[in-house]
Amino acid sequence: MKDYLNVANSSFLAVLGGLVFLFILSQSTLFLLKAWRRGVHAGIDKEKLKAAIRQSVIFSIIPSLPILISLVAMAPVLGIYFPWIRLSIIGSAPYELMAADVGAKSMGVTGLGAEGYTAAVFANSMWIMSLGIVWGLVIVIFFLNRIQGTISKAKKKDAGWVPIMIGALFAGLLSVFLADVIAPSILQLFADEVGKPVLGLPVLLVSAVSMGFFGILIKKFKMNRLQDFALSFSMVFGMASAVLISL
Amino acid sequence: MNSYDHYISSMHRIGRITGIIALFFIVGVPALTCWKFGIFPPIGNLLAGLGSILVVFVPIAFIEVMMYTPMAGVGGSYLLFVTGNLTNLRIPALIMCLESAQVQSTTEEGEIISTIAIAASALTTTIIIGLGVILLVPLTPILQDPTLKPAFDNILPALFGALGVAWMGSSTSGFSQWRVAVVPGILAIAVILVMGGHAGKFIGILIPGMGAISILAARILYKRGWITTDASHAKQ
Questions:
Q1: What is the pLDDT of residues A48-64, one digit of tens each?
Q2: End-to-end CA distance of chain A
Q3: B25-55 burial, b for 16+ CB within 10 Å, e for fewer?
Q4: Where does the pLDDT of residue B23 fall: very low under 50, low under 70, confident under 90, or very high at 90 and above?
Q5: Could you tell me the pLDDT band of residue A168, with boundaries at 50, 70 and 90?
Q6: Domain residue ranges of chain A, discontinuous segments joined by +
């Protein structure tokens, strides 16, 4: 075993990971309770609040699985506990691997776990991964008050515009993810040779059609219980189509 | 100050306090590890490496805050920037919950539902990752199963295909939401085609870029009266 892995897989880092884990759970629970109490106080139907919790929990299970996959991928080179910590606070796998690699290269080592990747180089990777990612949080801590103040003012000035602006922001995000699936399929349509099937588009279509179908069942046939599962089931159908096409 | 303003200012206070504690954790982990094992990377090398990361990630952080805090509201934003996974988990979770509750994000009810959705999503992810650490050995063969790989590789098309249909077919925000998606949708396809068919690592720049273009396009549509909301009707 490489010597830095003694540090990376030490019980000391496991304990730190446990503390971070407890902190995130406490913070999220605190926010949840505060919002819940306010909601009840403001007269929002408790069923509506419960539904939001239920739907968010059910939805979040499937998109959390790729995070586990990246944890599995990072564990051999960075140990298990530090990737756990990084992925629990802010982190994302592509960033972490890139920042860790920069940590290695800035110490003159060719890459993660390569010849010369000592405990000190691992520590360098840890620092760079951690200090590189905090800035969104720092900006929020210092400036969120002002940003939200500006939005409130805009709302007072032109109440019609603010929801459209926020909708447009989400539309921008949505359009990039959809286009990233649609564009390769368009290219393939005009390609001379038949390449590997592009799975993204069939997956997108299957999940979109499923969601549309669930929407009809919920609205027209009042199958309201489906509301909790519609998005997750649609995703599973889409993902299952990728498996079936690849068989 | 009415009781809702009081709630918002208390969320800011708690958000800042817990945010600062999170910063202590983030910095404390490498600091304590170095102290415990007596390993200190040379500060020059550390700063050189860090510099190359900060040049890219400080501007990205700034843009992400501008892009996602208006969607997430006050309570949600503090949680969003501690627990991460913005585009693949938290924002879709909150959009879905708002759609399902038929609530606008800019209202008090929207603020509360957003915070609840993001908190519940963060709890779920954190618990799943925690379980993953404990069950790493038995889980590894399942997660790396080659048969399931195409499914996990296509989680984002599955997510945004379904969420896209639900969101574009709705008018929860007070207007026909598909109308604001047409211009950025066509432009995003054009840009990615020009880029050779994949956004790849530029996706982090493309998203805010399209966000800005999308706002601009929506503004023009709004000013021309092609998108109207209940509030803008009331104003007229």
A1: 999 999 999 999 999 99
A2: 38
A3: bbebbbeebbeebebebeeebbeebbebbbe
A4: very high
A5: very high
A6: 3-133, 158-246
Question: Which of A2, A37, A140 to probe the B interface (max B CBs under 10 A)?
Answer: A140
Residue A223 and residue A83: Cα distance in Å, rounded? 42
Q: Give me chain A's average pLDDT, please.
A: 92
Contact B126, A21 (CB under 8 A): yes
> Model's pTM, two decimal places?
0.93
B107-150 pLDDT tens trace: 999 999 999 999 999 999 999 999 999 998 898 888 889 999 99
Cβ–Cβ gap A144/B78 under 8 Å: yes
Contact B126 A68 (CB under 8 A): no
Residue B71: both structure tokens together:
């969607």
Taking the mean position of all CA atoms in its chain, how far away is CA A24? Answer: 15
User: Residue B66 in contact with residue B207, Cβ under 8 Å?
Assistant: no
User: What's the ipTM?
Assistant: 0.93
Q: What six digits make up the tokens of B37? A: 């094992």
CB A172 within 8 A of CB B215: yes
Exposed / middle / buried, residue B78 (Cβ in 10 Å: 0-12, 13-18, 19+):
buried
Count Cβ–Cβ pairs < 8 Å, chain A vs chain B.
559
Going from N- to C-terminal start, the domains of chain B cover 174-236
Alpha helices (H) in B84-202, listed in sequence order = 91-101, 108-134, 136-143, 149-153, 155-168, 178-194
